[in-house]
């Protein structure tokens, strides 16, 4: 599976949109982009995934560039409870194995 | 939906002892995964099962580690004998049918080997 690159850490003010970038320049055509987050002392939590179209659910939006080499996870109105480590993972269709990198530590500031 | 249930939440034991971690996946899910998380190595996949059959155990660190899934609603990860370097948080996850279904994680077992 393609490797991903994320910033080590980011801050965002409470109530603002948090935009978390991810680079996956070697992504291939059958690979999906998944986002998970891990709040302190909890297991990773699935957020959203996409192939090439933008996706939105109750938690977040995922914007994938047209060339699919990068994506952005958007938390539209960040709250303190969104403070967590966010993982961007690229995984091919049918591949059961997720490879977690170091992620982005997002801190929401009151 | 009860989610993935792991037990115990915390385990402290002395080196050399046998440790058994337990996991109940989400009902109806047919894939189950065991992960280990440490500060040094991050989150690593140890083994996963599909329809109760072990598919890939390449992440199991050594023969002291073993995992079983006797039925669709229960799995164990056993360490015998345990060593201090096994101290970590161990997560179990399950996934439903369908190639792009996400994994759902339990809250982990924090294991300390003294």
Give a description of the structure.
The complex is a heterodimer of chains A (110) and B (114). Chain A is an all-beta fold. Chain A contains no helices and nine strands. With 114 residues, chain B is an all-beta fold. In chain B, a hairpin with a 7-residue loop joins strand 9 (88-95) and strand 10. Chain B starts with a strand and ends with a strand. At the A-B interface, strand 3 and strand 4 of A face strand 5, strand 9 and strand 10 of B.
List key phrases describing it.
heterodimer, A: 110 residues, mainly beta, 5-stranded mixed sheet, globular, B: 114 residues, 7-stranded mixed sheet, 11 strands, 0% helix
Main sheet properties of chain B: 7 strands, mixed
Number of strands of chain A: 9
Beta-strand portion of chain B reads: over 45%
Task: Report the radius of gyration of chain B as a whole number of Å.
Answer: 13 Å
Overall body shape of chain A? globular
User: What's the main sheet of chain A like?
Assistant: 5 strands, mixed
User: How far from one another are the termini of chain B?
Assistant: 36 Å
The number of helices of chain A is 0
What is the overall shape of chain B? globular
Across the major sheet of chain A, the strand order is 1-9-8-3-4
Mean pLDDT of chain A: 93
Note the gap between the termini of chain A: 37 Å
Mean pLDDT of chain B: 94
Q: Helicity range of the residues of chain B?
A: under 10%
**Topology order of chain A in helix (H) and strand (E) letters:** EEEEEEEEE
Question: Summary?
Answer:
Helix content of chain A is 0%, strand content 47%. With 110 residues, chain A is mainly β. Chain B is 0% helix and 55% strand.
Helices and strands in order, then pairings?
The complex is a heterodimer of chains A (110) and B (114).
Chain A: E1 9-13, E2 18-23, E3 31-38, E4 45-50, E5 55-56, E6 61-64, E7 70-75, E8 84-92, E9 104-109
Parallel strand pairs in A: 1-9
Antiparallel strand pairs in A: 2-7, 3-4, 3-8, 5-6, 6-7, 8-9
Chain B: E1 5-7, E2 10-13, E3 19-24, E4 31-38, E5 42-50, E6 53-56, E7 65-71, E8 74-79, E9 88-95, E10 103-105, E11 109-113
Parallel strand pairs in B: 2-11
Antiparallel strand pairs in B: 1-3, 3-8, 4-5, 4-9, 5-6, 7-8, 9-10, 9-11
